[in-house]
């Protein structure tokens, strides 16, 4: 049934919101304005999901919170079913390892130069660890390619350098230090440093919200604004999850048998944690923003947050992508994300 | 590209083969004949995957090794693309928790009786832990329902009782002991006990090959043949995997640039483990059955196991489901599965 298919978009959208929360938090602390958050985590999960249909569903769920994506199938789904006009996620021209390595090891600098030169009007992303990342940043981007980078910047476009191996925090910090030594930096009103606006670091490689939080914390401690780094994620956004991730189990709670209403529930003695909710359920939110479920019909119907969307094959509420995005905006009523992550650790 | 889509079926089929290996191993030790293996792990993963398309691809990959499945989409795919006739996987009539709990807690025994009575010609599976699993087995299946179970058995059909919570090994062992005390057991030629042929235990709930191996080892130590238990798995068969599970990364290794052949590879200094293979590659198998990859064109072309399947949009080799299943049969050249699992733990 359609019910058994909702765990996946629901789980992606929830994890995706935690990701945005983390970015939001550090942007507020080190930059002041969190509105950049939807552009700082790029969905590169197309190749990492189990099918094209999953790519479409997962990417669309992620696009509720983010607007940076290479998983085009997500935009197609939102245009078809959620009245989206235009595109759901934006991208730029980036090199993969094979774009660099197929030039041959001796020609690495020519590969990067080619990417920048042939993309004069757009932001570009260059993978820099095909061989020796430090040589690449010091001598190529900070040396032979420097004029090209500056010219790209003068035209209003960004060059992102992408490390793709090693310890995330150590590598990113060292990348920033090298780029600062070659291109300088500015300090913002909150006292955090920013590379020139035409330079940024793009970090993928096994990224999830915990790793993102650890990188941004290290950047903060070292005086760097979180705007110096954009992240990319694939499997962690769209594949590494299952029904256990958010404990998505659907159980019958109520039935009418021969005219008689009965509460339905399971309560296995070998695992009390699997006891299910019983009777008519309703969902409520108090003034502090906390959610709770009322069982056995005890909830106030007038404040029930559950609503019927599908009924007997009919779509009763046709939400647009814009409405859903608006509803998902992070507000002061939301949880303290760092406190939440620490709780999960304990 | 189609290349980026192969990691998923490839990973499912590999994990699935490890599952069959484990069953094969314990059937050989405690029963003598491993040919039952393809029927002892049931795919109930449809609700646990991220889309219908993923269900089809994953279930089809699993059906290379198994013939027990509720994920009908897998059969549809094999019929459409791999010349399968008939069905790929068989099933029986089983209750879910809601089938039992919607009768009301007081009517549990009636729910089980209903399932057995209304399915006279087929094997049935009864989930027994909705409330008190021991009460259910002792007093219902071993008491009030005993005559029904015996009659079902006389007609040549099996009643499987399905625990679904608690510690796998402890719960299964106790289930077997209770059923033995009520229905007796027989000892096979290898000295292992078997419940009467019309009775079996079906174990799902978070099953994977490690848990399956631990359950079968405990059964063996306690004198029970592995034929007393059938397993079910959902997420572990079809969802809990990603490109990192088997390190499925596709890298360019060879290119011809302006007529010149070059070896293409990456070798990041921040993670030597990510160094990729270079040049023309070929795949070889020695007399002991060990596989190896030859790089830079050094392999003997005549013994290369790689073959072209798709080329320029054309399907050059059209394998049938039967051929693939035949190729995947476990032989004496295969690894020692318990040794392999122990290696993975260290």
Automatic annotation (TrEMBL), chains A, B:
UniProt key word Metal-binding: no
Segments for region (Disordered): 273-302
UniProt GO MF annotations: nicotinamide phosphoribosyltransferase activity
GO biological process: NAD+ biosynthetic process
Keywords assigned: Glycosyltransferase, Pyridine nucleotide biosynthesis, Transferase
SUPFAM superfamilies (alphabetical): Nicotinate/Quinolinate PRTase C-terminal domain-like
Top enzyme class: transferase
Pathway named in the protein's UniProt entry: Cofactor biosynthesis; NAD(+) biosynthesis; nicotinamide D-ribonucleotide from 5-phospho-alpha-D-ribose 1-diphosphate and nicotinamide: step 1/1
EC number(s) per entry: 2.4.2.12
This protein's record includes keyword Glycosyltransferase: yes
Domain Nicotinate/nicotinamide phosphoribosyltransferase: 39-313
Domain of life the protein comes from: Eukaryota
InterPro entries: Aldolase_TIM, N/Namide_PRibTrfase, Nicotinamide_PRibTrfase, Nicotinate_pribotase-like_C
Family to which this protein belongs: Belongs to the NAPRTase family.
Protein name according to UniProt: Nicotinamide phosphoribosyltransferase
